[in-house]
Write a structure and sequence with these properties.
mainly beta
Length: about 80
C-alpha cells in the first residue's frame, strides 16, 4: 500500500498518524459514451477525476480503517495520445 501518513497540529500538540492504503480505485469513466456519463457531464461539466482508497490508520496503539479521496480537475490532467 501507499504511505498516506499525516500530522495533525492541535491545541494540545502534534499528533502523528500512520496511514497505508489497503485498496484503491480511480475514476476512468470520463471518456465513456454511456447515458449516465452524458448526464453527469451535462449536470456537472467540471466534475473532477477521482482516486478513492480504503486506508488503515494507526496511532497510539490504536488501529482503524477509513477512506481517502483525492481529486484533480480534468483540465489539469494531460493525457497521452492514443
Amino acid at each position: 500500500g501507499e504511505d498516506v501518513s499525516l500530522v495533525l497540529e492541535t491545541a494540545d500538540g502534534t499528533v502523528h498518524i500512520d496511514g497505508e492504503t489497503v485498496f484503491s480505485t480511480h475514476d476512468i469513466h470520463h471518456d465513456d459514451d454511456m447515458y449516465s456519463m452524458h448526464a453527469l457531464k451535462k449536470g456537472m461539466p467540471s466534475f473532477p477525476a477521482l482516486q478513492q482508497a480504503g486506508v488503515r490508520y494507526r496511532w497510539d496503539g490504536e488501529q482503524t480503517f477509513g477512506m481517502l479521496e483525492r481529486s484533480n480537475p480534468l483540465d489539469k490532467i494531460s493525457r497521452a495520445p492514443q
